[in-house]
Amino acid sequence: MKKIFLFLLSLTVLVKADLSVEQIQKMVIQIHEKREGINLLTLETTKDPFIQLQEENNVTTTFAIADKEEAKLVLHAIVNGKAYINDSWSSLDDTIMGYTVKYIGQRGVVLRNGNHVKKLFLHEKRDNLIKLEERL
Question: Cα-flanking dihedrals φ and ψ of residue 38, to 5°?
Fold first, then answer.
């Protein structure tokens, strides 16, 4: 029974799926025919389909808490255990904009302000590392 049903189903699909060239050309002609749309006057006189809600006069005020501006600290150079930060030379335990210099290395500086720790590094592309060599 199932086999007969499947055979008849596939046969009807094959018969209905056959399109001739003439049928395709008729479909193309129907697609290209100019279809008549709605008049502009009719569109202008139609009622707006969207509901306009009237706003109540409740005033809601929101306050944005301004973020604390972080200190802009830029490390320019390191020479002989001193760091050139924000256009001034600093050594260990010096204070810069509330931060204390805790470590000065070859490529970076560690600053601390209470629980906040900042690590400043020399820029990779620039050659800010100045080494002094002694000639004999």
Answer: -85, 150
